[in-house]
Amino acid sequence: MDDLVTERLVLHPMTLGEAERVVAGKSDSDARWAPGYPTEGDVSAATRLLSTSAISGDPQPFGTYEIRRRDDGRAIGGVGFHGPPDVNGSVTIGYGLVPSARGEGHASEALRGLLLFARAHGVTRVKGDADHDNIASQRVMTAAGMRPAGEDERVRYFEITWTDTAADTDPRP
């Protein structure tokens, strides 16, 4: 599967070998990791990719993507799907960045790229959530076009829906 490219980022579909290295915390000679990569969230996503692949095969294109800066190729985080679309065309997403890459709009840009990809592949709804005190993550989803869709005692839920899945240059409805 090809990389997804945005203005400043490359969303690289994580391979099983890359996932194994992330879980082990050991970069190969070709991998360029920014300081702090992988985070706990990246390790969790790589572990989920390995588990899913062992049970039902490679989940791509609805798997995990490494977020890499285009200018230096360094991995600064991850974004991806928690699984393939359900029978209603709905998926759940997650994302995260190393601390040194936060606050520069990278997460919103990566999420917008993933939303465009999802829309182009027939997804009708994308869901996500953020802890109540994680205002930055809530802003990321809002900036990418997702809207609040409820909350419980732990998290606020966000989603974006489309009735027409034809992708354009803006994932927002």
From TrEMBL:
Species per Swiss-Prot/TrEMBL record: Streptomyces violaceoruber
Keyword Lyase carried by entry: no
Listed Gene3D superfamilies: 3.40.630.30
Protein name per its UniProtKB record: GNAT family N-acetyltransferase
CDD domains in UniProt: NAT_SF
A molecular-function term among this protein's GO annotations: protein N-terminal-serine acetyltransferase activity
GO cellular component terms, semicolon-separated: cytoplasm
Domain N-acetyltransferase: 9-163
The UniProt record lists the keyword Transcription regulation: no
